[in-house]
Amino acid sequence: MTSDRAMAIVWMPFAEVRVPSIQLGVLAGLVREAGWDAETFHFNLDLAARIPRIYDEFSHYNEGLLGEWLFAETAFGPAPPGQSDLYLDNVARDPVTRQKDSAIREYLLYLQQVTIPEFIEGCLESVEWERFDVVGFSSVYQQNVAALALARRLKARCPNLIVVFGGANVQGEMGAAYLEAFPFIDHICTGEAELCVKPLLHCIAAGKDPLNVPGIATRTETGAILESAPLTIRSLTGEPLPEYDEYFARHRALKISTGIELPIETSRGCWWGEKSHCTFCGLNGNDMQFRTKPVEIVIKELKHLSQRHGVYAFKATDNIMPRQHVDALFPHLRDAPYRFFFEVKSNLNLAQLGVLRDGGVRWIQPGIESLSTEILRLIGKGSSKLHNVRLLKWARWLGIKVSWNLLHGVPGETAAMYEDQTELLRFLGHLEPPEGYARIRMDRFSPLFQSRDGPSVEWWRPWEAYSAIYPPALDLERAAYFFDYEAPETLPDSHHVQMFERVSSWQASWANEPPVLELSRRGRQTVVVDSRFGSSERELPLDADSIRLLEACEDIQTLESVRDVADPGRIAALLEAGLLVQDRALLLSLVLPDTATARFTKDTLFT
What pTM does this model have? Predict the structure, then answer.
């Protein structure tokens, strides 16, 4: 250490193993700019090394907040009699049959009562915590209880160690609720940490209370909780380059076998959310303002990080890709070795997707959510049924992986909106299936949550799992992020059985070789090759006018614009065969162009 002040920054389970924490990487640089020494600790890797076969499943499994429950006894002590039994009755089930599974139950109890306490003890004993003045925990998703468990033990061992929490789990009023409930926490950053870390450390070094530091909730000597409103970062140009050396050293030392993807931030906020906040979206907290990082800085970071670590797969943390990247960033990366994941808006066309593919994008999350234009309007997506189908179509042709979901439970929905989707799903087997079909959640900060006391919501309460995890001292209405609710203008779950079945069949059809639907040139004849409805391919010979119509509708077209290509009867025949899809006066061909004409070859995304 080179300074007389030092801060430890900790990343706990169940954070993803493959990706180092960009929060820790940036914060370490900010702490050093404040004149302090900084060390990061990716303890999530330590637990992954203990339970390598299942850690990844826990990091992606949100049902019942299982990752949080596993740490609950270590953090808060034994649960009241019978509480764990009730909790496990709900979560210890076979993932396929949903029947209670005693083996899963016993394994979860072993993890909670043996593996997790040993892990926390290992975190305590592996570091000389007395060297540090401050320990900071960055907490997102299912990291909260693990962080609380270690923080409590650290405070008991080192009473003078100042404990600070930050991250999405303690944004806004959630932060003050946690501070009130857990006296071993000294300060909580309730907004964007870049603006408060250095002022907070300056106050600590000077022995002053950080009462006026923006975005800090703090406990005074009298025990009162005081908080200052957070500020918003206006520019993303001043951040230090993220530091990941400790992650890579720990990854090697523990012999973690997963591949690695480097996080990179090119923007913050949501440009679409500034116009229309999607009904269910709780991301960005209370600040939707969209800010972009200059292209030259992005390119500099990509070069620095890839050369330093020998990794060329990047996972963008952006909530939505900046529109200008299509013209301003990716053309500069055409010959670069990078591969990217980005969240995007679903109205990208073939030319735009082609630029992304040329620039290294191999995986996107487009926020499709529905294949009904009416439902998309109800939830404020700013897209349509044909926009979403078009994106799936061209992503399949270009070899871009698509992660997406279908949602139901939208206030104002009707049965007809799902009947149309159920019928459409019959014809989309050649396109990448959704990862699931689920009811819309009520998340804190979402418009649905903000209107929870209005007529569109009958009742609401924090997820039941919270009360099985946290002690009564925590005010769950202020601390919870996920909520159960009932909306009167929605269809019962029983209405969605057929959609569930269609989605499951679609997913199963992609377990091996995905189905195809494409034009194929056979000498002078063009046929449609179709394997959507069985294991064997069918060749559908079409006349020249039908081929011309399909080619004319490769992108979305109006009925009027194709009147000179095909008569209404021909259009109706192709709609019935599932080769065209219609949305009001618009048409789109579902048939992919001949794969021999594709400009791109499929390659592996991220290992």
Answer: 0.94
